[in-house]
Automatic annotation (TrEMBL):
HAMAP family: T23O. Heme-dependent dioxygenase that catalyzes the oxidative cleavage of the L-tryptophan (L-Trp) pyrrole ring and converts L-tryptophan to N-formyl-L-kynurenine. Catalyzes the oxidative cleavage of the indole moiety. Belongs to the tryptophan 2,3-dioxygenase family. The lineage of its organism: Bacteria, Bacillati, Actinomycetota, Actinomycetes, Micrococcales. Homotetramer. Binds 1 heme group per subunit. InterPro entries: Trp/Indoleamine_2_3_dOase-like (IPR037217), Trp_2-3-dOase_bac (IPR017485), Trp_2_3_dOase (IPR004981). Its EC number is 1.13.11.11. Keywords: Dioxygenase, Heme, Iron, Metal-binding, Oxidoreductase, Tryptophan catabolism. Heme binds at H248. GO terms for molecular function: heme binding; L-tryptophan 2,3-dioxygenase activity; metal ion binding. This is Tryptophan 2,3-dioxygenase.
Length: 292
């Protein structure tokens, strides 16, 4: 009996046998391709260069996969924000942990696009018109959820009602950081009223009055472990985001140098300024206050 099973499931002539129990008839069953709607997904790559340039498929897939990952990042961050609002910090941090892994994948993904040489990109860049990653509403929504809000960005999406709705909701809803600070206040930490009552449609700016609060958390980590762990998880999020921005900048410099962006920006110079943006400045400032 054992010999029969080994022969049926083994390898012969460098070919693996298909086990008898493997389902092969999908005439009335859900298949892998059906569940993932692969016909739609795999037909969404439509190069427009004529004659079609070999490397345009790379360019499209790079950006489409980024958008898929951003969709999941947004899903997880919004859930983390809602869980913090419900004082479910542990579950919120599980979502944050997943985002951190996605961020690493997104950052590493730039190395694939970096295989596109300046000469290769120049041969089809013109067909992009004014299409640019600057117009990624999901990227902007992620920034908004993390607190880096900018209502002026909505003008870019006026022709897209669905994108405008997503961004408007993110603009008007407290950020992940807002909800963390509110959670701390409910837990008895002395979060100033000016912070709790701020206009959440505005970009977060440095609040020096929060630094002493975080200094106490960092000075007595055993007593404030949940708050301390969350602070460090948020720092990880910002670090990862900045690494992504930096790799974006260096990839753009590598491929187009200092040319203007297709969307009309100054290109690399514009991306360089994004590195000056911050999400949780107090969590960096508190490090200066830690003795030692």
């Amino acid at each position: 009996m054992a010999e029969h099973v080994e022969s049926e499931a083994g390898v012969e002539g460098n070919t693996r046998r298909i086990e008898a129990s493997v389902v092969t008839d999908f005439s009335d069953r859900m298949s892998y391709g059906g569940y993932l709607d692969l016909p739609t997904l795999l037909s969404a790559q439509r190069p427009i260069s004529r004659p079609e340039h070999h490397d345009e498929l790379l360019f499209i897939i790079q950006h489409q996969t980024t958008e898929l990952w951003l969709k999941l990042v947004l899903h997880e961050l919004e859930t983390a924000r809602d869980l913090m609002r419900a004082d479910e910090l542990g579950r919120a941090l599980k979502c944050v942990a997943r985002v951190k892994h996605i961020q690493k994948t997104l950052t590493e993904q730039w190395s694939v696009l970096a295989t596109l040489t300046p000469a290769e990109y120049a041969q089809f860049r013109g067909v992009l018109g004014n299409a640019s990653g600057f117009q990624s509403f999901q990227y902007r929504a992620v920034e908004f959820v993390l607190g880096n809000k900018n209502a002026k960005m909505l003008a870019v999406f006026e022709a897209d009602p669905e994108a405008t709705a997503v961004l408007t909701a993110a603009l008007e809803t407290p950020s992940l950081y807002d909800e963390f600070l509110r959670l701390l206040a409910r837990a008895g930490y002395p979060i100033p009223a000016s912070v709790l009552e701020r206009d959440v449609t505005q970009a977060w700016t440095f609040a020096p009055e929060l630094v002493p609060v975080f200094a106490q958390i960092y000075a007595h980590t055993d007593e404030h472990w949940a708050a301390y762990e969350t602070c460090e998880e948020l720092v990880d999020l910002e670090d990862n985001f900045q690494l992504w921005r930096f790799r974006h900048l260096k990839t753009v410099e590598r491929i187009i140098g200092n040319k203007r962006g297709t969307g009309g920006s100054s290109g690399a110079t514009f991306l360089q300024r994004a590195l000056e943006l911050t999400f949780f400045p107090e969590l960096y400032a508190v490090r200066t206050e830690i003795p030692g």
